[in-house]
Prior knowledge:
By secondary structure, the chain is α+β, with helices and mostly antiparallel strands. The protein has 36 helices and 13 strands. Strands 4-3-2-1-8 form a five-stranded antiparallel beta sheet, with helices on one face. Strands 9, 10, 11, 12 and 13 form a five-stranded mixed beta sheet that branches. Strands 5-7-6 form a three-stranded antiparallel beta sheet.
Amino acid sequence: MPLETRSPLLRFGTFEVDVYAGELRKQGVRIKLQEQPFRVLTLLLQRPGEVVTREELRSSTWPADTFVDFDSSLNTSINKLREALGDSADNPRFIETLPRRGYRFIAPVTSIDRKEPTAAASATAAAPTHKWKVVVLVMAVVLAAAVAGGLFWRSRQARRLTEKDTIVIADFANSTGDAVFDDTLKTALNISLRQSPFLNVLSDSEVAKTLQQMTRPASTKLTPELVGEVCQRAGSKAYLVGSIGSLGSQYVLGLKAVNCQSGETLTEEQVTAVSKEKVLEALGGASSKLRSELGESLTMVQKLDVPVAATTSSLEALKAYSFGVRAQVYAESLPYFKRAVELDPNFALAYAAMGRVYRVFHEDSLRTESIKKAYELRDRVSEREKWRLSVDYYILVADDVDKAIQAAEAWGQSYPRDSEAHEGLAEAYRRLGQFDKALAQYEAALHLDPNNASLYGIVALMYMHLNRLDEANTIVEQALARKLDHSFLHGDLYYLAFLNGDTAGMQQQVEWAAGRPGDEAYFLNVQSDTEAYYGRLAKAREFSRRAIQSAIRADFKDTAAHWQAIAALREATFGNSQGAKRDVAAALALSRDGSVISVAALTLERVGDHPGAESLLAELERSQPSNTQTYLRAEMEVTKGNAAQALALLEILAPRELWWGLQPAYLRGQAYLLAHNGEAAAAEFQKLLHYRGLLRHELIGALAHLQLGRAYALTGDTTKAKMAYQDFLTLWKDADPDIPILKQAKAEYAKLQ
């Protein structure tokens, strides 16, 4: 609170100030002090213990029509004032500096009644003219301070951001010589600020796109010199620059928000960490203050303010996580995330990131384990990240789509500008096979994050699922026109080329993936599926072998085992029992992942090994959702010839059969064939032919033609039956001639002639 000014004598330590006389005395001896430093001292003494900002000092002590270098003049006045008081900036007794903010008078100040005898009583008779000048000056100072307070409040309001403004975060300037702070502090600040529903941090994809427009690599460091241009080009309002320096065993961190259009400093914070271990804690505190200064309500800051140090207290773990986030290829990011959780076993965000990578490469057990662990640690993350972890958990671990939808909708309400909230809701709808609703949410996410290459890829895939191939192609072309690149886009290009019979187009994408960890293995497996679709089993086997070896080299053993199990199921479907059993053994030797076990059980059932299939199913019941078990039980009933039991089980899966890639529909058609209901069987197989963009190169898409021919034959419609058989035999015109199922199809077709 300001001191009473009716008594113009103020005392601190051994010093006295006579405001009216304009004099500073020490133990009765007058100390020479120029007018400007005295004005600064007077204002500081009026507000002891409070921060007096540089702006307030400018407004109160330098008239508006005074043209000087204010920063230099103020620094000079403070230095002269400290010299007169015998004070030190490094170890202050009276005037404390708050870098880039202002100053604070830290010594006790008392007001003295003028009648009280003082050691300098005889020295107070100054010339009347000078006295009145000082009185006028003091009154002006007080008035100016009041006016400046209002102007300062209004100027702060003008400098605040709105919810529509975006900000860019620069890389920290690290002068400590300790590389652990490189990348780490920017990531920490990003984590801290993204928990704010108010602040809108420019996404990594937008930054990468802007850098590309500047003909710079996406990995370019955003230095203080570069970030301003990125900010302007991206149409953002402000950028944040951070710095860290060492002061003995302590660390000084600075944050500054700058309007990238005008160059005006909007706000800045400086904090000190007493040790290296306290740096993240100090940064979190500065980040919270920054949020408030930039316009976020204090209530919201207090409500949504999980310290970065709670997410992880390990700088080394956060550095490893930062490298993983910056990696341009999924496979390259995984070792960094693994290292992060080794350094900090409670690092929820690192577990979540691992889970997302494992998901891309179909490492199901590791994906489940990672996401489950992240969910268990959700109390250590921000509100925003809790929603994200919950949606991932409900979808990928608990298989509870209804809860996932509820969580994603609540997430979107709390963070309406968060594209990932829309992605989470889209994924939930996709699990229900509601591709139209999923597409709408993915497009909403893309609208919020228009340079996210992976989003273009998934939007194009949704169009394919809905058989809107032209629109799928348009989306991919839009991404390419923006010079975006992602493995999802190349996958889309391969599928579109397949659906259009463009062999050269498929080969072009295969060549793109060559030598890329993870991507190479994936595209080799895609080629294997394509060859199998056309009945070229020998080539399919070779591509499977190469895909499995590539996955093992990339350290994706679960993926390799899954593909080995798929190869086994293919052999069983084609009628090669011995090859199927051999591949099952190889797959299980690589991994006991849930997806591997489920496919292996299905394979053994198809080749007649019922005890082996039952044993695997019992093992599966401990790790896989009930829907997987239901499907396997239905498959077993079909192989045993129990059509009614199979149809009853498949009724459970009907609401989500599109998500299952129409596998339940194909199996239901087989059950109807067993029951000699050709019309019902034909309806099921027609579903597969209708959703061509959903099945793409899946083997059951080709076999549906054969099964449809069998269904029409049961109904007595020989003409339609012949056409269906011909369609199948045309697809398999280059198939290996010794495949049992092909021989059987030819024999059935001959009987129709």
